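User
Take a look at the entry that follows and flag anything odd:
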Amino acid sequence: MNRVHALLLLLFSLAMCQAGAATVQACADQAEMPPFVYAERVHGQRSGQVVGASVDLLNLIGARHGWQVQVQLLPWARCLALVADHRVALALNIGQADATASKLLLSDAYFTMHNVYFYSRRARPQGIHLRQLADVHRYHLCGLGGYRFEAYGIATADVDRGATIGYEQLIGKLHLGRCDLFIDSRETMAGQYLINPTLRGMLVDGTLVSQPLPGSPLRELYFGVAASGAGAAQLLRTINAGLARLDKTKELDKLLAHYLED
């Protein structure tokens, strides 16, 4: 190793030590993704405090290095652009498709979502039974406006999204027979209990049925950092080492249980 290289490494190490005492800035989708990341509710009202299992997981990793994470909820495209431009250190709960499109590097996967489909017992008392993913095309599939469905192995163009802006509307369309089913993840729907009391009642009244979505690709969650820069590369190594260590004690399962146990 030559002297110039050694000096650069020393300066980089010193910079990381100084940065280690600071807060690491991160961002996530403003649409929220409970229980992984969402704005805490106080007396039913959305607060400015961002919480969730992904936030807690990063703080556990950072505790060993003297930093903590501060998360902003932003429009998703803006969040990804800020990370790519080194103006925010990392993005939470990113998937492979978004990382590729935004030219971000991914951490090791820290959670695999369980994809499910929902139908209405009122409109479909005989039930809907999918044997393979292609069976979806035999039904009128609906979804939330602005969302994409390629991550499920389904073309977005095949989904009736319209102006549907919330799960209440989506479930209402099922009950009215205006569509047959919609798809989402088990964890995301369970997390709605944390932020939406109205939806909570709709999920437990026995008329909305969920089943595993057969043949659907795995939807893994990652942390994303900029594709260039020594600081981003070091942060990624730190996160991956922390994930490996915490995976041995199933720490994320414990964090999720903390949010979903109620």
The first strand starts at residue 23 and ends at 29.
